[in-house]
Each structure stands twice: as C-alpha cells, then as structure tokens.
Amino acid sequence: MHKVYTDIVEISGDVITVEAEGVGYSEIARITTSRGVSLAQVIRLDGKRVSLQVFAGSKGISTQDKVRFLRSPMRVASGSNLLGRIFNGSGLPLDNGPELNENLIDIGGPPVNPVKRIIPDKMIRTGIPMIDVFNSLVESQKLPIFSIAGQPYNDLLARIAIQAEVDIIVLGGMGLKYDDYLFFRDTLDAQGALSRSIFFMHTASDPIVECLLVPDISLAVAENFALQGKRVLVLLTDMTNFCDALKEISITMEQIPSNRGYPGDLYSQLASRYEKAVDFDTAGSITILAVTTMPGDDVTHPVPDNTGYITEGQFYLKNRVIEPFGSLSRLKQQVNGKTRDDHRVIMDTMIQLFASYRETLEKQSMGFGMSDWDKKLLRYGKLFEEKMMSLKVNVSLEKALDLGWEIMASCFAPEETGIKKSMIEKYWPGIRQTKNGKD
Predict the structure, then answer these.
(1) What are phi and psi of 101, to 5 degrees?
(2) Is the pLDDT of residue 369 over 60?
(3) CATH 3.40.50.12240: which residues of the chain?
(4) How does strand 123-124 pair with strand 313-318?
(5) What number does CATH give the domain 77-332?
(6) How many CB atoms within 10 Å of residue 333?
(7) What does the pLDDT read at residue 2?
(8) Which of 157, 151, 153, 125 is nearest to 138 (CA)?
(9) What is the Cα gyration radius of the chain?
(10) Using CA atoms, how far apart are residues 34 and 123, in angstroms rounded to an integer?
(11) Buried b / exposed e along 404-426 (16+ C-beta atoms within 10 A)
(12) pLDDT of 439
C-alpha cells in the first residue's frame, strides 16, 4: 500500500505542493477530491517539499484532499489499438472510443543510445517539390518548420501526413484552436490517412499542463512502434506553445527567468524531445517535423534560436510557400545522390538561377533597364514560383525533376545553364528526343 498524504501545503496555479518522503522525479500521483480523481506529476523536489503539476488543473482541489504517489512515471497505452484513435494531452480518448489501459509504456525516457543508431540514408518522399527536390526529408531527421502566425503550416503538416511514404503518423497538437483540431481530423479522415495515424491533441482551452505532455506521449508511442520495425513520422505543432507552457510553469514555480522570461533549461527541454529522432540498426525509425512559430518573424527569439542549434536544418514557411533561401536540410546529401543522377544537378542549377532572378527583381524595382538575360530570368522565376514553389503542386520526385528540365528549357538555351554536356544530352527536352530518336 502506498502512503496517502492529506496535507497540501500550497496551491499555485496548476501546481500543488505537499510534504512527502521517498518520492522520485516525474513520478505520478493520484489526487482524490470531492469531485473525483485527478492525476499529477512530480516536477520539483526540495527536501521533503514535493511540487506536482495537476494534469486537469487545480480547480476543485483543497488543502485537505488526499495525495497518493503511484511509484511510477507517466504511462501511456501502446500497440496497434491506437491506430486511427484521437486522444487528449493526458492520453484519454477524445473520439468516444474506449479508454486503453493495456501495454502501458513509460513516457519521457532518455534518447536512444548512439550505438543503436545508424547513419541516416533513406529519403521520405512527400510529393512536395520544395522538399523532395531541394531539401529532401531523411528518415530519422529532426526538422522544424519555422513560420509566423497566419501561414498555412497546419495545412502543410496535414498534406505531409497524407502523402509521406511512412508506416505510421503520430500527430501531436499543442495549444491548437478547436478548428485546427477538427481540420486535422476531418482532412486525414477524408483522405484515408486516419487509419495509420494517432492523434494527441491539446487545445487552447485545455489545462496548460497537458500541453507539456503531448511531445513526450507522442514520442513514446512513436518509439514503441519504431522498435517493432515501423517507419514513424512524428508531426508536432506548435513547439512555441509548448515552450510558452514551460515558461508559465517556471514562473509559477518562481524559477529565475532567462532570456525573455523563458526557463534557463529551455535548450535542454527542447533537445530531450528532438533527440528522440532515430534510425535503429535492427528496427524502424522516428522522424520529427515540428512547427515553430516565430513571434514577429524574429528568428533570434529564444524558441527558434535554441531549436536551430539542436535540429538538422529547417523549412522556412513564408508568404505561403517554402522559402528556398531560408530552408535547409543538412542531411539531404545523404539521399539525393541515390535517387536519380540528375537530382543534384536540378537542385543546384535551379536554385542558382532563382537567386539570379531575385537579383533581377531588385534591379527592376530600382528602375534599371532589363537585358535579354534579365527578361529570361524574370520568365524563369515566375515559372519556378508557380510550378515548383507553390504548395498546390503535388507531383512525384521523378516528375518534379522532369518538370525542372522543362522549365529551364522553356526559358534558356542549354549552354546558358552551365550544366555539363552529358546531362544536357540525357535530359534536356528536344535534345533528348533527337538523341534517342524514339524517345
């Protein structure tokens, strides 16, 4: 029998404090009130003083209520019964389905031992040219989507969830509007992707403590499936809301604030989640895509700033497109040489020409005269934005590469691109047909 404590010495926001002995960090406690039972998690130990976050909020809790520690960390159900299900931030059903209490696994465990990891070398296709062609997503990669409020980052995540060539999607929502939750549910259901997905949803109206649980629950479930050999893609939105929840809790705990009021361990808090990305040498993989909204489009804000040191690049969503010069996949070289022999040629040449197009736009805005080359660049840039950058474009990698050749051929002569002759003869429209005769 576990000892029951009936003297809550302090209630501050959603954090309560009791005096107890033999309690471990992250241990779960059951609080019995006149209204029912609530769960809480140990977040601070100061001698005999134990501080706990109450998952459902502290409303209705009095200082005489009973607290019983369960001698275990937070756990969540695992297994195939989760597929197609929607849960809240505490792992309780939101879809009117049965509550799952079998195959429980701990959440918030340590990252995988590097000895068990392999070097990432497999591409995840998404059907989005700005990702597949120019910044390939690699299995076990951890990438943020840097954005500002109002950009279609949730639309982008939903499309990736539908089209990504993986086995399982785990979607974790933090501080979402209820409309966003319904959007994810209805969109994936309509496209037939809900059956391979698992949702853990925290809305803005839910207790803030549950926001902190979403990444840990999502990643614990993902790791369990990865150990079974599944390729799992974890989509998290929005990590800035997660960090704001950390900030609010740290203020409640009267911790000394760091940059802009965020806790001093913000980097460690983010790293402990992102480092869950892994490709097991004898099993499956976990890949993480996480939206990070930037207040005021400020990349030096503590959340994107710390995130950039942890992750392996970023997708920069701006003006409703993935911006080519703000985006980077540091692992793309691991895979884009294994796709088609012209992949890197298309990637490098088209971006170089697009950079020249941006320079031409500046010249045009300052009233300079446009040369014939400038006019070609202007035509090319418009085609690139329309047929490559637009998030409405949905084509396979091979078709995107062919489309790249067609765009360049419609604007330039082969020798103007700087592409070597062997590639021109193999892929350039017109020259390829002439050389092959029957192509």
Answers:
(1) -130, 15
(2) yes
(3) 77-332
(4) unpaired
(5) 3.40.50.12240
(6) 11
(7) 66
(8) 125
(9) 25
(10) 54
(11) bbebbbebbebeebebeeebbee
(12) 47
Gap between the Cα atoms of 286 and 428, Å rounded: 38
Nearest to 409 by CA among 387, 391, 393: 387
**Residue whose pair of structure tokens reads 């097991």 in the numeric block:** 280
Q: pTM here? A: 0.91
- The bridge status of strand 142-147 relative to strand 313-318 is parallel
pLDDT value of residue 432? 63
Q: Which token pair is 129? A: 């040219």
Query: What architecture does CATH give domain 4-73?
Result: Beta Barrel (2.40)
Residue at token pair 């035509």: 379
Site of tokens 């939105």 = 237
At 414, phi and psi to the nearest 5? -55, -40
Contacts of 32 (CB under 8 A, 6+ apart): 65, 66, 68
* Cα 49 to Cα 267: distance, rounded to the nearest angstrom: 26
The token pair that represents 183 in the structure block = 């959007």
User: Which residue in this structure is represented by tokens 């005489």?
Assistant: 64
Q: 262 near 243, Cβ under 8 Å?
A: yes
Look at residues 128, 99, 117, 428 and name the one whose alpha carbon lies nearest to residue 283.
117
- Residue limits of CATH 2.40.10.170 in the chain: 4-73
Spell out a b/e string for 261-285, using b for 16 or more CB atoms within 10 Å of the CB, else e.
ebbeebbebbbbbbbbbbbbeeebb
- Per-residue confidence band for 116, with pLDDT thresholds at 50, 70 and 90: confident
User: Element (H or E) spanning 353, and its range?
Assistant: helix 343-365
Long-range contacts of 378-384 (CB under 8 A, 24+ apart): 379/410, 379/411, 380/353, 380/354, 380/407, 380/408, 380/411, 380/412, 381/354, 381/357, 383/407, 383/410, 383/411, 384/350, 384/353, 384/354, 384/357
In angstroms, the Cα distances linking 100 to 93, 194, 211, 227, 239 are: 8, 18, 20, 20, 27
| DSSP string across 44-62 | EEETTEEEEEETT-STT--
